[in-house]
Design brief:
Layout (H helix, E strand, L loop, with lengths): L4 H16 L36 H28 L2 H19 L6 H10 L4 H29 L4 H31 L7 H16 L4 H12 L3 H35 L6 H33 L1
Helix pairs in contact: 1-9, 2-3, 3-9, 4-9, 4-10, 5-6, 5-7, 5-8, 5-9, 6-7, 6-10, 8-9
The protein binds zinc ion (ZN).
């Protein structure tokens, strides 16, 4: 597949942004604790924590500060909506939530590593990358909405308890990710990577669910903030708008991985023995990487549970 130079430049720029972004999710930038004001920052670290290498800081700092500004705008406008019912505030906050989603999903977590290893492991159409990336983002948003709704609204728990319990859901998600990685790696190693279409589809759906069960910390915070401000439905809407933004970033990662695999495969003559070995190697490696990522994340979640 030949790509026009402008598209390649855009993709490279996007990739740079993704590399630069880890700092943006380093801490809870909302500045507002959902229900117990004096407590420490309520981000359930792990999946969204992580340090930034020094050489990346000059690129990362502006993105992080942009994200903080966006956070402040969202919390300010949410208050305005509650106090004045302002339509303008609603429009502003919707736009901001979208941009925030795009930037935030570039930070650690959000299934990007899983999705990229998955599409490195297997041949796929570009559309599959977009569908998988979007499905993961929306599932993560929906998980967060359900979690806050169930625990915060129905069971009346405090924001910090909700955030604490979300770690259990993370742990479930990571166990599923490990399982999916092992299925991919083992079936590829056994030479059964040509297994039938339905089985491939099931593994793909499994991957999306495994990565999507992880709640997104920022979506949780938006929901808890909306809950404390008595604008829960607006919180649901904002979380979904944010998911649209997140879909763009996560899908882009999936598409880049699909193009990456194609680029590697193009270097080897099709149907040759070497090509077969390379395809098999990529599949095994992709599966092993997914299982390894799942194990690291699980260890992190375990530490937070203990
Ligand atoms: Zn998130």
């Amino acid at each position: 597949m030949q790509l026009p130079p402008t598209l390649i430049r855009a993709l490279v720029l996007a990739a740079l942004c993704l590399v630069a972004a880890p700092a943006t999710a380093q801490q809870n930038p909302w500045g507002v604790a959902p229900s117990r004001p004096a407590a420490p920052t309520p981000v359930p670290g792990g999946a969204e924590g992580g340090a930034v290498p020094g050489f990346l800081r000059p690129i990362v700092a502006p993105i992080a500060s942009a994200q903080r500004d966006l956070n402040r705008t969202i919390s300010r406008e949410l208050k305005a909506i509650r106090e004045t019912g302002s339509l303008r505030a609603l429009l502003v906050v919707t736009g901001v939530a979208f941009v925030y989603g795009v930037l935030h999903a570039a930070g650690p977590g959000h299934g990007k590593l899983v999705v990229s290893s998955f599409f490195l492991a297997r041949k796929a159409r570009i559309g599959a990358g977009i569908v998988a990336g979007s499905a993961i983002s929306f599932l993560q948003a929906i998980t967060s909405i359900v979690l806050v709704w169930g625990l915060g609204v129905i069971l009346g728990q405090h924001g910090f308890d909700v955030l604490g319990r979300s770690v259990w859901l993370e742990a479930v998600s990571y166990v599923l990710i490990i399982a999916i990685g092992l299925v991919i790696a083992i079936s590829a190693a056994r030479g059964t990577h040509h297994y039938d279409h339905d089985a491939r589809e099931r593994v793909g759906i499994g991957m999306v669910i495994a990565a999507g069960v992880t709640p997104c910390a920022s979506a949780l915070i938006i929901m808890l903030f909306a809950l404390t401000n008595g604008v829960l439905l607006i919180g649901v809407g904002l979380t979904l708008v944010m998911a649209i933004g997140m879909s763009i970033t996560t899908s882009l990662v999936g598409v880049l991985a699909i193009l990456g695999r194609r680029t590697i495969m193009v270097a080897f003559p099709a149907e040759s023995r070497v090509s077969g070995w390379v395809a098999k190697g990529l599949s095994v490696a992709g599966g092993v990487i997914i299982a390894a990522i799942g194990s690291l994340l699980l260890a992190g979640a375990w530490a937070r549970l203990g």
